[in-house]
């Protein structure tokens, strides 16, 4: 009888100990500890499970550009169409030395089933870039992916605003940040256009005007004098002293 009572008491103690351990393991996200990403911030590195195994962001990107975009959950309608659209454009991104990385705030194993739906809906032969599993929301926190209300729910349920896009250059700098509301689908062609504009600017020392497309005229930065512009670009058209167009 004594042994039975002791066993029950020990079992109860073990359960309470496990409960205390479990409580200690619950992540408390604090706004004052959250990184603030800005244009030209270093892209935070992380290692996380993905549909292609453990993925270290910086190692995966290597000397490539990266487009890193996130989703609040698997089997969500808008996100399903977006992943399919990016997958179809993957060859175009590869021509520009860009790697794609998705993220969804659920387990990586679950993503594998979701991928079958993406392939079916978007008529893909094979979905071929990794989707990170972020069920803990640690990466969502690290990259500041949620709005004010979403932050309050970061530990529970679907957080509808884990819908961000980051363009990362080979130096691991963040060059573009766009966060979309839950109701608005992304424009994959616009992300590709931004890559073209950034790469053109980096290689030629120019900036691009509104709605610029490859092959169109670019703008000479105001910091470049007319004499230097003539030497560097040859002919250019002056609309205003601060607005000069040239071929690139």
From TrEMBL:
<feature type="domain" description="Thioredoxin">
    <location>
        <begin position="37"/>
        <end position="200"/>
    </location>
</feature>
<dbReference type="InterPro" id="IPR024706">
    <property type="entry name" value="Peroxiredoxin_AhpC-typ"/>
</dbReference>
<dbReference type="InterPro" id="IPR045020">
    <property type="entry name" value="PRX_1cys"/>
</dbReference>
<dbReference type="GO" id="GO:0033554">
    <property type="term" value="P:cellular response to stress"/>
</dbReference>
<dbReference type="InterPro" id="IPR036249">
    <property type="entry name" value="Thioredoxin-like_sf"/>
</dbReference>
<protein>
    <submittedName>
        <fullName>LALA0S01e06788g1_1</fullName>
    </submittedName>
</protein>
<keyword id="KW-0560">Oxidoreductase</keyword>
<dbReference type="GO" id="GO:0006979">
    <property type="term" value="P:response to oxidative stress"/>
</dbReference>
<dbReference type="GO" id="GO:0045454">
    <property type="term" value="P:cell redox homeostasis"/>
</dbReference>
<dbReference type="GO" id="GO:0005739">
    <property type="term" value="C:mitochondrion"/>
</dbReference>
<dbReference type="Pfam" id="PF10417">
    <property type="entry name" value="1-cysPrx_C"/>
</dbReference>
<dbReference type="Pfam" id="PF00578">
    <property type="entry name" value="AhpC-TSA"/>
</dbReference>
<keyword id="KW-0676">Redox-active center</keyword>
<dbReference type="GO" id="GO:0005829">
    <property type="term" value="C:cytosol"/>
</dbReference>
<feature type="active site" description="Cysteine sulfenic acid (-SOH) intermediate; for peroxidase activity">
    <location>
        <position position="79"/>
    </location>
</feature>
<dbReference type="InterPro" id="IPR050217">
    <property type="entry name" value="Peroxiredoxin"/>
</dbReference>
<comment type="function">
    <text>Thiol-specific peroxidase that catalyzes the reduction of hydrogen peroxide and organic hydroperoxides to water and alcohols, respectively.</text>
</comment>
<dbReference type="InterPro" id="IPR019479">
    <property type="entry name" value="Peroxiredoxin_C"/>
</dbReference>
<dbReference type="GO" id="GO:0042744">
    <property type="term" value="P:hydrogen peroxide catabolic process"/>
</dbReference>
<dbReference type="GO" id="GO:0008379">
    <property type="term" value="F:thioredoxin peroxidase activity"/>
</dbReference>
<keyword id="KW-0575">Peroxidase</keyword>
<comment type="similarity">
    <text>Belongs to the peroxiredoxin family. Prx6 subfamily.</text>
</comment>
<dbReference type="InterPro" id="IPR013766">
    <property type="entry name" value="Thioredoxin_domain"/>
</dbReference>
<keyword id="KW-0049">Antioxidant</keyword>
<dbReference type="InterPro" id="IPR000866">
    <property type="entry name" value="AhpC/TSA"/>
</dbReference>
């Amino acid at each position: 009888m004594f042994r039975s009572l002791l066993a029950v008491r020990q079992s109860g103690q073990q359960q309470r100990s496990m409960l205390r351990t479990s409580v200690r393991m619950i992540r408390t996200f604090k706004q004052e500890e959250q990184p603030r990403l800005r244009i030209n911030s270093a892209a935070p590195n992380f290692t996380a499970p993905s549909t292609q195994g453990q993925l270290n962001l910086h190692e995966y990107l290597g000397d490539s550009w990266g487009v890193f975009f996130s989703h609040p959950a698997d089997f969500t309608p808008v996100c399903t169409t977006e992943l399919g659209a990016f997958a179809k454009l993957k060859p175009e991104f590869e021509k520009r030395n860009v790697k794609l990385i998705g993220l969804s705030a659920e387990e990586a194993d679950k993503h594998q089933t979701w991928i079958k739906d993406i392939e079916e809906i978007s008529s893909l032969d094979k979905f071929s870039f990794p989707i990170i599993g972020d069920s803990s929301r640690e990466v969502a926190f690290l990259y500041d992916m949620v709005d004010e209300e979403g932050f309050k729910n970061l530990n529970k349920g679907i957080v509808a605003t884990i819908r961000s896009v980051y363009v990362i250059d080979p130096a691991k700098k963040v060059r573009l940040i766009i966060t979309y509301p839950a109701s608005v689908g992304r424009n994959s062609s616009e992300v590709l256009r931004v890559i073209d504009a950034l790469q053109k600017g980096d290689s030629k020392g120019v900036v691009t005007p509104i709605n610029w497309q490859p092959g169109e005229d670019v703008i000479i930065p105001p910091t470049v004098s007319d004499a230097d512009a003539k030497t560097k670009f040859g002919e250019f058209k002056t609309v205003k002293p601060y607005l000069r167009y040239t071929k690139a």
